[in-house]
Write a structure and sequence with these properties.
Blueprint: H1 14-19, E1 21-28, E2 34-41, H2 52-66, E3 69-70, E4 77-86, E5 89-93, E6 100-104, H3 107-114, E7 119-124, H4 134-146, E8 150-157
Parallel strand pairs: 2-7, 4-8
Antiparallel strand pairs: 1-2, 3-8, 4-5, 5-6, 7-8
């Protein structure tokens, strides 16, 4: 269950974890290495309790449970957090809670993850629709990058 604004728990609830919007893609680092990318963002508000302030508080709790850092510093190594559970699905582990986020991903993504390819975990503080297109995700990333509304970390398979 998602909690109203007065709940300032630093541990993400099962409902919050389940509500996160995710997308994965493959990218290339400046030196030509392949990199798996994972984006976590909140959904748009679904009730009067879900103001932008509340959504940001929840996402900062998620960022804390993942030990993510700001875009103004090099991304921290947040340790192994991903476990492949099917050929096209992984689970993301958070600190302080037994709950994991199931993340659908393409088979090439999970194959590379299984081979030890590093993962850039990107968390957006602003909402994005679960049905966002690739173009909308690109526009979102451009917008929140300019506004410094992203948090980062590097992870890998457990």
């Amino acid at each position: 269950m998602l909690m109203p604004a007065s709940a300032k728990s630093s541990i993400p609830t099962a409902g919050l974890i389940a509500s996160l919007v995710t997308t994965t893609w493959l990218d290339t680092t400046p030196n030509g290495a392949t990199l798996c990318c994972l984006l976590l963002v909140p959904q748009p508000p679904r009730s009067t309790y879900e103001t932008t302030v509340v959504i940001e508080q929840r996402m900062r709790a998620v960022a804390d449970a993942l030990r993510l850092g700001p875009a103004t510093a090099p991304p921290p190594d947040i340790g192994p957090r991903l476990r492949q559970i099917t050929p096209t699905e992984v689970a993301l582990r958070f600190d302080g809670t037994p709950y994991r986020k199931r993340i659908p991903s393409g088979r090439p993504w999970t194959l590379l993850l299984g081979q030890g390819t590093p993962v850039a975990l990107v968390l957006g503080l602003d909402p994005l629709s679960r049905s966002a297109t690739t173009a909308e995700i690109d526009a979102y990333l451009n917008r929140v990058t300019l506004r410094q509304r992203l948090l980062f970390g590097h992870t890998q398979s457990e």
